[in-house]
Amino acid sequence: MSSTYRLAVVGTGGIAGLHAQALRDRLSDRFEIVAAVDPDADRLESFKSKFGVERGYASIEELLTAEQLDLVDLCTPPGLHADGAVAALEAGVGAICEKPPALSLAEFDRIAAASAASEGDFAVISQHRFGSAAERVRNMQASGVLGALAVAKCDTLWYRPEEYFAVDWRGRWETEGGGPTMGHGIHQIDTLLSLVGPWAEVVATAHRHRRATNTEDVSHAIVTLENGASVSITNSLLSPRETSQIRLDYDHATVELDHLYGYGDGNWTVTPLEDRIEEVMSAWFAKPRGVPSGHAAQFEAVADALDSGAKPPVNCEDARRTLELITALYASAFSGKPVRAGDIDPTSPYYQRMDGAGTPWPDRK
Ligand SMILES: NC(=O)c1ccc[n+]([C@@H]2O[C@H](COP(=O)([O-])OP(=O)(O)OC[C@H]3O[C@@H](n4cnc5c(N)ncnc54)[C@H](O)[C@@H]3O)[C@@H](O)[C@H]2O)c1
Fold first, then answer.
1. Ligand 1 pocket, 73 CB below 6 A?
2. Ligand 1 centroid from CA 144, angstroms
3. Which of 16, 51, 65, 122 is most buried, taking the most CB atoms under 10 A from its CB?
4. 218-246: average pLDDT
5. Domains of the chain
6. What atom in ligand 1 is closest to the CA of residue 43?
7. 8 A C-beta contact, residue 298 and residue 124
8. Is the C-beta atom of 77 inside 6 A of ligand 1?
């Protein structure tokens, strides 16, 4: 049976507007936005009046004391995610959190521990897992029609001018947790892992070519997956023709995704070997179809999970695997060594901070 869940939006800046629009326009029978939180009174007021939200609070603590909630929706800057999630979970309320879920694995494990002890669950926004085409590729891979994966590519080539970093929390390890790898490429990297399965080892480089940030503005990685396939990953904020791409070369077909901030079925191309055309294309034209990636698709999956008593996606286990790969990418880039899954334990400096003991370049911010 489907219920309507009582949700509060915490942080009413840029991305919160997209969440509220998706919830109001597409999912008003599944979620009710009962309150919002922001210490910036003007932002809070304009969010409340735009989305018809009745009550507002200056802090998550006031919210949790005053309201009966099923979920908090954390849309605050990254440095506030862990404290917000732990506060909600300790109050027995589930939390859905914008990416990146935390600034470090240490912070993430604090959230995971609070989630394990709570009635509520923790889930991370990764809206590109949820388009119907990605689901179809996962189904095709599971059925064997594509054969085994041999090689893949995962590129987030975006452009952010110097002014973008004027926002105080951007471009610093302490508040953003990293540059394009952590803040932007995380979408594609997480979607990739949802398609290809667990990673085993990474060798990487990170560079600060242009921007006046403390974090990198470009990174490159070669990742070996548990299934033996290899993936090259590039994350850039210096690419004037912007694109987000995933390419998967299976034994029987190449599958490609080319989009920017979201995709529909039409952003995907499947090119089978000649003697596999019929079986591959009939699987590709099967259902599900027509659902674009985006926040609405993920929130719908969250509501479906809550209705059935399951943990909402993307759960702690999935989100940690992605955050661990990003941590390992930085650890490899700054140590000059390959890093394997499981290597970053609490004794590693990269467990506490994505830049470990520090970057090869001096701070500029
Ligand atoms: N999924 C996506 O596609 C996507 C896109 C953009 C941003 N994001 C992520 O969303 C998050 C927010 O980004 P944004 O661009 O909306 O930032 P923003 O700076 O526009 O908004 C953040 C809001 O949080 C408020 N805030 C600050 N301290 C607070 C506190 N203690 N309690 C409650 N609110 C507080 C600020 O006043 C501001 O209104 C980041 O983690 C970012 O990486 C995700």
1. no
2. 41
3. 122
4. 98
5. 5-127+297-314 (3.40.50.720), 131-290+321-352 (3.30.360.10)
6. 39
7. no
8. yes
